[in-house]
Write a structure and sequence with these properties.
Elements: H1 6-25, E1 30-35, E2 39-45, E3 54-59, E4 62-69, E5 79-87, E6 98-102, E7 105-111, H2 115-118
Antiparallel strand pairs: 1-2, 2-7, 3-4, 4-5, 6-7
C-alpha cells in the first residue's frame, strides 16, 4: 500500500525547493541610494539572484524594487526574496526612469526634473 503517490511528490517538490532556497540559499540584498548631480541612482546588489527575477514597479510616486523566486518561469507560486520601496520626491522625473542589470547589480536611474519644464504660462480662456 502506497501512502504517498508519485503525483503528490511531483506537485510538492517545487514547494520544498522553494522553502529550502528561502531557508538559506539566497544572499541578503544590499541597497544603496546615491544622489548625483543629474539625479538619483538606486543600486541593488544581490549576487545570487538571477536578473530575470528582478522587478521595478512605479505606482504614483512610490517605487518598488523586488525580486521573487519561482521554481520554474511558468509556476504560479512565487516567494519574495526581498522588497524595498521608495517614496520619490516631486523633483524627480518619473517619466524617464530606467533600470539596468550589470555585473550582479541592478541600477535604477531616476533623473531630476528640469525646472524649466515645471513652469509655464497658463492660457486664459475667454467665454
Amino acid at each position: 500500500m502506497k501512502l504517498i503517490s508519485q503525483q503528490f511528490l511531483h506537485n510538492i517538490a517545487p514547494q520544498l525547493d522553494l522553502l529550502n532556497t528561502l531557508g538559506g540559499g539566497v544572499a541578503q540584498a544590499q541597497v544603496k541610494v546615491h544622489k548625483r548631480e543629474q539625479g538619483v541612482v538606486i543600486r541593488v546588489s544581490a549576487p545570487s539572484v538571477q536578473p530575470e527575477t528582478f522587478h521595478v514597479v512605479l505606482n504614483n510616486n512610490t517605487l518598488s524594487v523586488f525580486a521573487e523566486y519561482r521554481h520554474s518561469p511558468e509556476d504560479k507560486l512565487a516567494a519574495p526574496l526581498f522588497v524595498q520601496t521608495f517614496d520619490l520626491p516631486e523633483t524627480l522625473d518619473v517619466t524617464r526612469i530606467d533600470a539596468v542589470h550589470q555585473d550582479g547589480e541592478l541600477r535604477v536611474r531616476i533623473p531630476y526634473e528640469d525646472p524649466a519644464d515645471r513652469s509655464r504660462e497658463i492660457n486664459i480662456k475667454r467665454r
